[in-house]
Design brief:
The protein has eight helices and 16 strands. It is α+β, with helices and mostly antiparallel strands. Strands 6-7-16-15-12-13 form a six-stranded antiparallel beta sheet, covered by helices on one side. Strands 2-1-3-4-5 form a five-stranded parallel beta sheet, sandwiched between helices. Strand 8 and strand 9 form a beta hairpin.
Length: 401
């Protein structure tokens, strides 16, 4: 579709000169409307060609504010032309009938400049509106983020309440841990409690991912383990870890939440010093330190919550009189030097061998984080790529109950 022709208004006294000027302008197909006064021009007028002597001196400013204006004159020394130039008009043509092509070019250029200015003003207005809208959205986002942060902080406080007291000694076995979420909520979880006067139960879980959804699974783990613990009849402690992993595997699959976990469940027999345990893809593997040596606890197992009908191993290990058992979530591998996974695992073995306490291993990581799960922090510490948890059990020479 052809665009409508811009309407050019010609302001001059009626007569042959005005008619000739209008014809000169109209030769390139421009639409022309001739009038004696500005008020007589149609509203759709795009540009005015005004004779220097047709406009009173005081009217030039109001004319140029309303419409782009080209001035024509018969002489470069015309006093009225000089007045127009003095108020800011720079587009003028002397003897327009002799320079008709130049006049038409100046008209089209002035119209194009006016169009571009209008587009810029339109874009500037749209940008201002967009910025105002973005500011509103940003304020709304900041408000929602603040509410979410408060919710996550509250969730983190609840999660901390579910963790066992630490350090804690039961039946000569001491448990201590360090748990740092990557932000506020953690997908890592652990527990350490007495089954009865003879047996001690502990478990160590690392739920896939981190944040709210993974933290909800840790709450589910706590609920299920406490329920199963209440139903335990104190028989066959060696079967408990594998049995619990199997039913937990079924529970996670039936929820359909798409979360899985790596777990280690252990039962310590105080009388025989035996550790009955089962594990589901725990990485790094539990490390046992005794007599200046470090060994991985043997055994393999599938993750919990990925595959149906999985059987988990029933494993047993006789603990020495003095031991340290270290369990770490895979977040610790992000904090260790080494180009390969095997190199980082070997580095972890050396560190637990050389660190007699949890505090020394923690400090060796040189992380700018709150020093303890009980310290809520102000969010100014280092943000970890993953949750980081270290659990250490030591015994049996710690019976101070």
């Amino acid at each position: 579709m052809d665009l409508p022709k811009p309407l050019i208004g010609v302001l001059d006294e009626p007569g042959a000169y005005r008619d000739a000027l209008a014809d000169t302008i109209a030769r390139d197909g421009l639409a022309v409307f001739a009038a004696e006064r500005l008020e007589d021009l149609p509203r759709e007028t795009a540009l005015v060609v005004a004779h220097a002597q047709a406009i009173p001196s005081l009217a030039w400013s109001s004319l140029t504010e309303r419409l782009p204006t080209v001035v024509v004159s018969d002489s470069r020394l015309d006093a009225d032309l000089l007045t127009a130039v003095d108020v800011g008009l720079v587009d003028y043509v002397v003897e327009p009938m002799r320079h008709g092509q130049l006049l038409r070019r100046m008209i089209r250029k002035a119209i194009e400049l006016r169009r571009l200015e209008a587009e810029r003003n339109h874009d500037r207005d749209r940008l201002a509106q967009l910025n105002a809208h973005l500011e509103e959205l940003n304020e709304s986002l900041e408000t929602h983020l603040a509410l979410l942060r408060l919710d996550q902080q509250a969730g983190g406080q609840i999660q901390r309440k579910l963790l066992p007291v630490h350090p804690q000694t039961l039946g000569g076995v001491t448990c201590d841990y360090w748990l740092i979420p990557s932000l506020y909520l953690s997908g890592d979880f652990l527990d350490f409690q007495r089954l009865d006067e003879r047996f001690i139960l502990f478990y160590f879980a690392d739920v896939s991912g981190h944040g709210a959804s993974s933290a909800f699974v840790t709450v589910l783990l706590k609920y299920l383990f406490n329920r199963w613990l209440g139903e335990w009849d104190a028989s066959r402690p060696g079967e408990l870890p594998a049995h619990w992993l199997a039913i937990l595997n079924r529970e996670l699959l039936e929820t359909g939440i798409g979360k899985h976990a790596t777990l280690f469940i252990g039962v310590i027999d105080r009388q025989t010093h035996e550790l009955h345990y089962s594990l589901g893809a725990q990485l790094p593997k539990p490390l046992l330190v005794t007599d200046g040596k470090v060994v991985e606890l043997p055994g393999e197992g599938m993750p919990v919550g990925l595959f149906p009908d999985v059987e988990y191993p029933r494993l047993r290990y006789t603990l020495p009189a003095n031991f340290q058992l270290w369990l770490c979530s895979d977040g610790i591998l992000e904090c260790l030097p080494g180009e390969t996974l095997d190199a980082r695992l070997r580095e972890l073995e050396q560190r637990v061998l050389n660190c007699a306490t949890l505090e020394r291993l923690r400090d060796s990581l040189m992380l700018d984080t709150p020093r303890d799960i009980d310290a809520e922090g102000d969010g100014s510490g280092q943000e970890l790529p993953d949750d980081l948890t270290i659990m250490m059990l030591s015994g049996f020479g710690n019976d101070h109950e």
